Amino acid sequence: MPDFESLLRITVSPAELVVRGTLMYWFLFLLLRFVLRRDVGSLAMADVLLLVVISDASQNAMAGGYQSVTDGVILVSTIAAWNYLLDWSAYRWPAVRRFVEPRPLPLVRHGRVLRANLRRELISLPELMAKLREAGVESVADVKLAVMESDGEISVIRNGKP
Questions:
Q1: Do residues 9 and 46 share a domain?
Q2: Spatial contact of 125 and 118, defined as CB atoms under 8 Å apart
Q3: pLDDT in tens, 7-65
Q4: Mean pLDDT of the chain
Q5: SS3 of the chain: helix, strand, coil, percent, to 5
Q6: Which of 53, 133, 150, 152 could be bridged to 101 by S-S, CB 3.0 to 4.6 A?
């Protein structure tokens, strides 16, 4: 029979758990936002961060890294609260949205490849061409604008030529 009292007893100060969760969330958020900002794919970066950190915090609580499940619940709740607060703030205030989400980055403008932007995001010309082909574009000359969106996807607008 499990010892339910020891499973639910708080063994680490809740304030310490909130501070630890807050520090790790912001460290990982800033790391992903400014270093790995475009490699996340179609999920929002903050959502991936939330899943990774919560899974680690939950694993520690379940495996006994903490002394109780309650410690893990406090930590996971702190991390989820920060994620919700960032999403809500980004929705409500454009200044927060500009901080949280990278701006769209043009890769092709009026049939001209913007090599400096490709270099900045470490995208090779063959990778760009593959994305253009996926969008049904045969030649860069047929592209009015190709933009890397904040989620890492590339949007393509064709020229109005027949």
A1: yes
A2: yes
A3: 788 887 888 888 878 887 888 777 666 665 454 345 666 777 777 777 776 666 554 56
A4: 81
A5: 60, 10, 30
A6: 150
